[in-house]
Specification:
Blueprint: H1 10-36, H2 42-61, H3 63-67, H4 69-89, H5 97-107, H6 110-132, H7 137-222, H8 227-251, H9 265-279, E1 283-289, H10 297-318, E2 322-330, E3 333-340, H11 361-371, E4 375-380, E5 386-393
Parallel strand pairs: 1-2
Antiparallel strand pairs: 2-3, 3-5, 4-5
Helix pairs in contact: 1-2, 2-4, 4-5, 4-6, 5-6, 5-7, 6-7, 7-8, 9-10, 10-11
């Protein structure tokens, strides 16, 4: 209720309403007992109760009481004066001291609040003793114990509130730090990847293209007088182009294939089969089963890459005449099957991957499926063809996870 008081929360609002109801209830009790008990000065007791209640009701409405300790102190003084008048008229006013303890501890600084609580307790004990025309230790126990409980409760709440605020600030700082760290890591990753690609392109593609240019110029100069040397230069340039093409494919392995731009995965696979049949001595056919479901780009890229790699292996190594490519939508999964009638192989005797001879295809396929939470199975035997099946869930463990690189 002041600048130093904790901000109101749903819990503190509920406690404040309970305190309001307690004050009104105790004042009403004093007024009712004055009427029903036919006590002397009954009218004055009722008037003092009403005046005290009205003075108390003004505090929560005035914004100055919430913002200024001075205004809160003046309001508490007015409430205390009305309560003192009520206490002088009726012993029942002693019970109102208990909610006043909480108000004083909440609105005033710590030392001033404790002093106000002690003064209120002394007034309550003295007033009750006057009405009883005697004094005993038992008369002081109630108000004193109430004051001690109020101090313990309010100080305990304030300590918990400070601890809660401290933890809230720590959580906010941790959240901000994590966000900054994530942004810094992202930026560092982008810069590192750019630097890596710049070095790779400079040391491979750029150097290779320069070599091709030099070889073609040499072939141009040698062509009229020495056709054999020109042919040798052209052959070397062609080999350099093939090497650079392999490097370029490695660089763009994680990017969306151009064959998927503006088309569906099924259309891209069908076009892949058509192109393969036209360029090589093999008949590749595409089949689609199930009701097509929307796929993420990662799913489409992975399945298309697997199909490209599998058909390339079939053309180069299997000696097959036909290949069947089937894309199946199976509810919560999507499957890609490639089956050929080639001479097959023993999956347990695959040669080790080598930068010169290749052998990365199956490893890359398996990495792609595993990155999306799927599986890759291969069934083959010498003389019995090969069947490859890639199965991916439509909701992978991390849909935003980038494609795995070989």
């Amino acid at each position: 209720m002041n600048s130093a008081a904790p901000a109101l929360t749903p819990t503190t609002r509920a406690l404040a309403w309970c305190l309001h109801l307690l004050v009104i209830g105790l004042l009403s009790l004093a007024a009712v007992r004055a009427v029903t008990g036919e006590r002397p000065h009954g009218g004055w007791i009722i008037a003092a109760s009403v005046l005290c209640g009205l003075t108390y009701a003004v505090g929560p409405v005035l914004p100055g009481v919430r913002r200024s300790r001075r205004a809160a102190a003046l309001w508490l003084a007015a409430v205390g004066a009305c309560w003192t008048v009520l206490l002088s008229l009726s012993a029942d006013g002693v019970w109102v001291a208990f909610p006043l303890y909480f108000l004083q501890l909440h609105l005033l600084p710590r030392r001033a609040g404790v002093a106000a609580v002690v003064a209120t307790a002394v007034v309550a004990i003295a007033g009750f003793a006057v009405h009883q025309d005697s004094f005993s230790a038992a008369m002081a126990i109630g108000p004193a114990l109430g004051a001690a409980v109020a101090v313990a409760v309010v100080w305990g709440y304030q300590a918990l509130y400070r601890e809660s605020e401290h933890r809230r600030r720590l959580i906010e700082e941790l959240t901000a730090t994590r966000a900054d760290l994530a942004a810094a890591q992202h930026t560092a990753g982008v810069l590192a990847e750019r630097d890596r690609l710049a070095r790779e392109i400079h040391d491979t593609l750029a150097q290779g293209l320069s070599s091709i240019q030099l070889l073609l110029r040499a072939a141009e100069r040698a062509l009229p007088q020495a056709p054999q040397n020109a042919a040798r230069y052209v052959d070397q340039a062609r080999q350099a182009a093939a090497d650079n093409l392999a490097e370029a494919r490695r660089f763009v392995a994680a990017l969306t294939p151009p064959t998927l731009e503006g088309t569906t995965l099924a259309d891209a696979l069908e076009r892949l089969c058509t192109t393969t049949s036209a360029r090589h001595r093999i008949t590749a056919r595409f089949h689609l089963t199930g009701d097509p479901a929307p796929l993420t780009t990662a799913h489409e890229v992975a399945l298309l890459r697997i199909a490209q790699s599998a058909l390339a292996n079939t053309v180069r190594h299997a000696g097959a005449t036909t290949a069947e490519v089937t894309l199946s939508y199976l509810g919560d999964h999507v499957a890609l099957d490639i089956v050929d009638d080639g001479h097959g192989f023993d999956p347990t005797l695959l040669p080790a991957s080598d930068p010169e001879t290749g052998g990365f295809g199956l490893a890359v396929m398996r990495a792609r499926t595993q990155a999306l939470g799927g599986t890759l199975t291969i069934e083959s035997a010498p003389g019995r063809g090969t069947a490859l099946a890639a199965r991916l869930p439509l909701t992978p463990p991390s849909a935003t996870e980038p494609e795995a690189h070989p």
